[in-house]
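Sample intake sheet
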Amino acid sequence: MTHAEIPDSTRLLTPADVRRLADRLGVRPTKTLGQNFVIDAGTVRRIVRVAEVGADDVVLEVGPGLGSLTLALLPHVRQVTAVEIDPRLAEALPATVGEYAPDLADRLRVVTADAMRVDEIPGPAPTALVANLPYNVAVPVVLHLLELLPSLRRGLVMVQSEVADRLAARPGSRTYGVPSAKAAWYADVRRAGAVGRNVFWPAPNVDSGLVELRRRPAPSATASREQVFAVIDAAFAQRRKTLRSALSSWAGSAPAAEAALRAAGVDPSARGEALDVVEFARIAEHAPTRAS
């Protein structure tokens, strides 16, 4: 089933609704949890459209908050599994869906948990990640869920604009680093649009961006993901240094790092920002014994 516009009969949260629900629950958005609630119906419609979810999808939504995006997703998908760290919000979400979309209430499953630490998702395996992610944990949450849930075929996440740039950066760019290299292990990643500040309550001090992820096979390598990620971490820990120098601790010495780099076909005088994930995997394959 292809995406269709949300029917006019579907009730979405207005700015007044969001504030009323928050008052009812005694919820005040906190910086600690990175809470910025979406109050613009056009934005959640746009997210659903760009995510290209359909009737067969089980969507994993992280941080549903008061339910703005949840209500926009439910008419289009088989199920929304919402993972919410705040117990008050998790408990209230089914009631909100029951009030605004009673015919769709059976499509919602709520899990009260920290998405960064969850080790399983109950129910049918999620096929898509669609979420407005707290800025302070966006990268680790995305990487954790991609590793935990091989069933996730694609994702669309709304994150701080700077985080969006880092996730989607290509080798050679100023913003390319650990998040972009590690995300590329799992998926093709690209920017999918910008989001202004006024669609949130409270309005954050930064702009936001949409990031699209499409799962693809991990690089073919004899090294494990953990071994490849260790090389990436070492390469960017001192990103201004050459790989020969930056990888010296990882390899045991600068000469050992140079030997591994040459065996992998990588210039020892290059810097980490020039390499793609396939090249990092090749370096990991040629790790000295102590680094493997």
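Comment: Residues 1-6 have pLDDT under 50 and may be disordered. The longest strand covers residues 187-195.
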